[in-house]
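User: If you would, consider this record:
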Amino acid sequence: MPAAAVGSGWAWWSGTKDDVLAVTVNDVVGILSQRLIAAHALNHETQLIAWRRQIMMLQNALRSLPGSWRLLLEYPLLRLGRRIDAVLIHENCILVLEFKVGSASFSAADRRQVEDYALDLFDFHAESRSHPIVPILVSTDAIVEPVNWPLVWHGVTPVMDASGGTLDHVLAGIVGRIHPSRVPLVAGAWEAAPYRPVPTIIEAATMLYQKHGVADIAAARADIGNLTRTTDAIQAAVSEARSQGSHLVLFITGIPGAGKTLCGLNAVFGASSEAAFLTGNLPLVHVLREALARDASTQSLSLRMARQKTESAIQPLMGFLRDSLKRDTPPHEHVIVFDEAQRAWDADYGRRKFDLPESEAALFLDILRRHRDWAVVIALVGNGQEINPSYSSHGRDSRTDMAQTYGIVQ
């Protein structure tokens, strides 16, 4: 059955044009709802209704489109903590669709949302840089003005508007204006492509950090001299690992407010290599990104673009794990900062969470070990902040587990 055959990729559901036309709406919604329950523990009836309308519109639009297509529904950008409603892959272009079911208008915020998704693909998705990316906002009940067709050539085009009744017309118009690609896009390779931020993103984030005011995060209680010495020691160890081709684990300990977060950020932005600050504290992700972006926006860069530039350096920890565990290849990063490592869960929890009998520390180390040249894990350990009952009950902590797994403690 088509739904079962194509429902297990990176996207929550994906299939070719023929799959889309052959499958029933209920079959697709059934697979999507299973993923929704697994991801959020709640089944939202409004989401199921929206999916039904969305799938029917896509089926109608694809029915008359020439050429081969692949549809990906709920495509996750795991490292960024986002999920795209729908992506249509053609051999010559990538169409990013954001559906606002029941909406009768095209708001500026909705346009920014779908444009941000397209920019995310261009900046962070390895297979999205050689083909045009067209963001499309579908407000199902809106009245659409005459289409102002963009030049579909390279990079991200301006946002296009469509309604439920004009989506087929908009997609057909885009297809008719696409120049044939010298290297056709392969849908399967695109769907499984790794996270790879463009070099300019990393350079821009480093530049923004060097001019930031985020040191205020730790200013209240931090010993500046100790912060400097610790940062220097981390950077020296990272440089040594790179030059000697070794794998290291570094532990940074201290009471709350001692400056561990700032040391971790200094390590990420001073690594002169691919590096990321990973935290399970999602509010902290947003606060740190926003602090850097707001500092940068006082310069010649807009706040919106500054936010885009900081996303490679500060990432949700679970997004990193989920993305990396689906691959056998090394991650983009050679250096990771493991925030709040004292809260790492053990193998029993890992078996329940990922169906893998591994602790969180072991998973991180196995992922970084894929780098055959060198890698560094920097674990930030807060004294007296252990909260995982499985660790406290066994009298263990993440430092013990990392040492036993990697055999290296710095």
User: Anything to note?
Assistant: The two ends are 53 Å apart (CA to CA). The chain has two domains: 2-191, 199-406.
